[in-house]
Amino acid sequence: MNMTNEQLPEGRVAVVVGAGGELGRATALLLANQGMTVVAVDRKQLDMEGLPNVNSSELFDATDPMAAAPLIERIVHNVGEPAVLVNTIGAFQTADALTTTPDQLRLMLDVNLGPALWLSQAVAPYMKKNGSGAIVHITSRPALEPAAGMVAYSVSKAALVHLTRVLDLELRPFGIRVNAVAPQLIDTAKNRKFIPKDVLSHAVAPEAIAEVIAFLVSDAGAPVSGAIIPAYGV
User: Fold this and answer.
1) Is there a catalytic annotation at residue 153?
2) DSSP per residue over 28-66, as a string?
3) Contact 118, 71 (CB under 8 A)
4) Stronger pLDDT, 63 or 121, i.e. the higher one
5) How many CA atoms lie within 13 A of 152 on its CB side?
6) Which residue has the higher pLDDT, 199 or 45?
7) What are the boundaries of each domain within the chain?
8) Among 24, 153, 157, 225, which one carries the catalytic annotation?
9) 29 touches 93 (CB < 8 A)
C-alpha cells in the first residue's frame, strides 16, 4: 500500500489528531513526506516536537466536547480547509465487567468515542462544501471480538466502530469517505514496558499501520468507505 505523491495530491490539508503518540507521529510524517499539508494535533506541544515536514501544530483537549469546532476553525483560518482527518486518539484501561467503575467507563467513552464524533462534526461542513473528504478513526480488535478484562475499553472502541459505519452512511452521499483501522497490538515504547516479548513479537509497527491509513485517505482508496480494516499482524 505504498502511496506516491501522485496518489496523495500535494497541498491537500490533512489533520492528524494524536500526533504526539507513535502512531499519530508515524502517520503525520508519512502524509507530510507524501506531499500533504499536515497539521499535527495533540494535547501537549512537547509531544509534537521534532516532526520534520509537518506544516503546523495545534493543541487539543480530547475530553472537551467544545474544543473540536474551534480547533478546526483555527486550522481553516491559518492553513486551509481540511480534506483529510485522521484521529489516532485512544486510551486503554483494564478491568472486568464486574469491577469496572463509572469513572473508568466515562474516561474510555470521553477519549475513545467522543472526540471521533466531535471532530467528524467539525470537519464535515468543509468537506461537504468541497464535495470530497476522507476520515479515518482508529479502533481495535477487541471492538470486533469480545475480550475479557477490558470491558470499558472494548465497549468504547466497539461504539467507535458503529459510529464509523453511521458516519459513512450519512456522509458518503456528500463525497466523504469514513473508515476505521483496527489494530490488535501496536509496537510502541509504552507497550514494550509491560507486554511480554513473546506477545510483542506479534505487534505491528506504527509505520505499517500508517501505510494503511495513507492508503485509505489516498485517491487509490476512493472505493473504500464504511470499512473496518483489521491490522492484527501475524
Assistant:
1) yes
2) HHHHHHTT-EEEEEES-SGGGTT-TT--EEEE--TT-TT
3) no
4) 121
5) 21
6) 45
7) 13-231
8) 153
9) no
